[in-house]
Amino acid sequence: MWRRPAITWGLFAHPEASLAALGDVAGREVLELGCGTAYLSGWLARAGARVVALDLSPAQLATARRCQRTIGPAFGLVEADGAVLPVRDAAVDIVVSEYGVAPWCDPDRWLAEAARVLRPDGRLVFLTSSVLAAMCVPAEGGVAGDRLLRGPADLRPVAWPGGGVEHHPSHGEWIALLGAHGFTVEALHELTPPAGEDDHAYYEIVSAAWAARWPAEDLWVARRQAK
């Protein structure tokens, strides 16, 4: 992922160039929440952004540092909770997260922190699984099928085998949550794969055929309202 020449989104690599979710990042202060191996931050840094990437996992951050050393460029990597940010108020222009925080953290907590650290008119961009995908995954985990197995009320939160807990607000709930924390929604991209796309090599929550029928991922773009 670090070696891809341009930013893409989601399971089926939708080009940022066609979605324009982030806008021009050159010279912008960008904070990534739940960065994992930080490939997204690597792309942003190569595009000229001033990036700091946060994650709770020391192992993920160690992998990110190895990628920085072998591929580059260098940028800040910090071990931190996406809902308790070690960042001063109104310090960044863009907060971004590709799955890193939206499914795993109580939305009221992390949205409050994102709003706090963003400057007025700053941008929030986050990717998460679609509500429909979460409704169709069996209780024991695995690949989404073509039947609804739970309703919206069962998704905040939903517990998976092995102790995993995820939050999947409906579109209406996301809009209300974002508004309550001082954001205005600018775009919602419901991502589907291009025709003929193969299944993802290792993420198995949905097949390419399933995602071609129903959006499997939601990419949200919101603006921090000026006070």
Task: Write a structural description.
The chain has helices at residues 16-19, 39-46, 58-70, 107-117, 131-136, 171-180, 208-213, and strands at residues 8-9, 14-15, 29-33, 50-55, 76-79, 92-98, 118-129, 158-159, 165-166, 183-191, 217-224. It has a seven-stranded mixed beta sheet with strand order 5-4-3-6-7-11-10, sandwiched between helices. The protein has seven helices and eleven strands. Helix content is 26%, strand content 26%. It has a single domain (8-129, 166-196, 217-224), classed as Vaccinia Virus protein VP39 (Rossmann fold), CATH 3.40.50.150. The mean pLDDT is 91. Strand 6 (92-98), helix 4 (107-117) and strand 7 form a beta-alpha-beta unit. It is α/β, with parallel strands linked by helices and 227 residues long.
Overview features:
7 helices; globular; 227 residues; 26% helix; Rossmann fold; two-stranded antiparallel ribbon; alpha/beta
What structural category characterises the helix and strand content?
alpha/beta
- Strand proportion: 25-35%
CATH class: Alpha Beta
Helix and strand sequence: EEHEHEHEEHEHEEHEHE
Dominant shape: globular
The total of beta strands comes to 11
Overall mean pLDDT: 91
Biggest β-sheet: strands ordered side by side in the sheet: 5-4-3-6-7-11-10
Q: Would you identify the regions where 5 or more consecutive residues have pLDDT less than 50?
A: none
Main β-sheet, in a few words? 7 strands, mixed
Question: CATH H level: which superfamily?
Answer: Vaccinia Virus protein VP39
Helix amount, in percent? 25-40%
Structurally, the number of domains stands at 1
Distance between the termini: 38 Å
Helix count from the secondary structure assignment: 7
Radius of gyration: 17 Å
Tell me what the CATH architecture is.
Answer: 3-Layer(aba) Sandwich
CATH topology tier name: Rossmann fold
